[in-house]
Amino acid sequence: MTHYFGNLQMVRMALVCAALLISTGCASVQYSALEKVGIHKRDILVDRVEDARDSQTETREQLVSAYEDLSSLIGYDGGELEERYERLSKQVERSEDSTAELDDHLRDIDRVSEDLFDEWESELELYSSAALRADQEKKLALARKQFATMRRRMQIARDRVDPVMAVLNDNVLFLKHSLNAQALAALRGQASVLEGQVDELIRDMEVAIAEADAFIARMRGS
Asked: What is the dihedral of CA 91, 94, 100, 102, to 10 degrees?
């Protein structure tokens, strides 16, 4: 059992190195080197999808935390406004960092998926058996369709982030020089607007995460 988990860790480390190599050098050369040690584009794509899925979860949780802090601050009736504002500001900064990381992971997915599907298609010409070639053509078409569905879901969820971030940034900026009861009262209508946007974000993130899990399972099982 210890040996098994040790191998998993080695594979994971190799995949991390693969992502760094592909992003910094000639992709075809790096892919060739990795395939010699048993790491193929399919493995890298699955790993990148897992990273993006986890990043979506982190982004969702971070934005919900920022929204909750803003709602708490707007509805707060007491002292220590500065401390609560600073907490909100930090949450919004973390949300921006999480979003940037998510964008990086989505770009990684696009890069590796394009390389994988291009290779898969080019290999169809290598078959002498028409039956085997036809089988792979069907599998490739299905994989592309499944990937497109998953990626579209991920992008829908990603696009929900921007309106939420816009409201959060506007509120943080507004309160920066007007941190008082009057300013908080002026923002109370913003909380309800943001609540609806956060609900949509959570819903679409959950759909995208489920779609990513299904895609990962199919790629590993095929």
From this structure: -90
